[in-house]
Design brief:
Number of strands: 0
Oligomer: single chain
Helix content: over 70%
Largest sheet: none
Strand content: under 5%
Number of helices: 16
Structural class: mainly alpha
Distance between the termini: 63 Å
Radius of gyration: 25 Å
Order of helices and strands: HHHHHHHHHHHHHHHH
């Protein structure tokens, strides 16, 4: 028994060692491309050009131009997230009434454009929305009034919703909601939820909140920090906080203030 026990312990040690070795490439990747860059941002953000410790880079967010860009970024990101959330639940309810194959195909259709380069997708919307673009060309052909949303916050929101569709395309809660059993819906109605919105709030909205939070994060954070969408669809006339940071790094060569912001 003792030899068998020692043999089992030895095998377990080898197995644990194998798992550790398999995680090695991941740890190297995370260290080189996540941890080290974050430490560099921390270092630059807390130091001046002379290398001395300072909080001026972080406090510069209170400057009028920077604060205006931050507030506008927060507002547009919030609108984009709410729109994605508004689109997500109808999609989830559609998937609920479909089989696994049909549901997977619908999700695939939503995710498919994400295989295209981010910059190309945004440039495509620029071509569609510009004054003499495709959409206005079609409207003019049918003698309808044209649209003029290019270089406006509305165009930026449209670009955000299209480029960051995590909530209604690939978020986990899209997979969760279709699994709600019909008996749960019927029980809610029997318990006093006479109106559809009551069932929606008590059942649909409260089901798997972790998935909803995950999807909201996947949309809100990249929307808040984007600068390519606002450059192309905003015509460089609308500065978001991402544009301010990008300009500090590329045009002003002020890595310290860029990191602080």
């Amino acid at each position: 028994m003792r030899r068998r026990w020692e043999s089992m312990n030895k095998e377990k040690k080898y197995l644990d060692l194998g798992k550790s070795l398999l995680s090695g490439p991941y740890l190297v990747w995370m260290t080189g491309f996540t941890i080290i860059p974050l430490l560099m941002i921390l270092w630059y953000g807390l130091t001046g050009r002379d290398g001395a410790f300072t909080l001026e880079n972080i406090l510069s967010i209170a400057e009028p131009d920077h604060m205006k860009a931050l507030v506008l970024s927060l507002g547009l990101s919030l609108i984009s997230t709410l729109l994605c959330l508004f689109l997500a639940y109808p999609l989830a309810m559609i998937l609920r009434g479909r089989g696994n194959k049909a549901g997977s195909f619908i999700v695939f259709i939503f995710i498919l454009p994400m295989w295209m380069n981010f910059l190309l997708r945004t440039l495509a919307w620029q071509t569609l929305l510009e004054k003499n673009g495709v959409i206005n060309g079609i409207l003019s052909f049918f003698h309808l009034p044209g649209i003029s949303i290019i270089n406006t916050p509305a165009a930026i929101v449209l670009g955000m919703v299209y480029n960051f569709p995590a909530l209604y395309g690939s978020s986990r809660f899209i997979m969760y909601l279709p699994s709600i059993d019909d008996s749960v819906i019927n029980a809610a109605q029997d318990s006093g939820s006479q109106y559809p919105f009551q069932t929606f709030i008590k059942i649909w909205l409260s089901f798997k909140p972790s998935g909803v939070i995950s999807g909201i994060t996947m949309v809100f954070v990249p929307s808040l920090t984007t600068f390519v969408i606002s450059d192309l669809l905003g015509g460089s006339k609308i500065l978001l906080i991402g544009n301010v940071i990008e300009q500090e790094f590329t045009r002003g060569s002020n890595w310290n203030q860029g990191s602080g912001l």
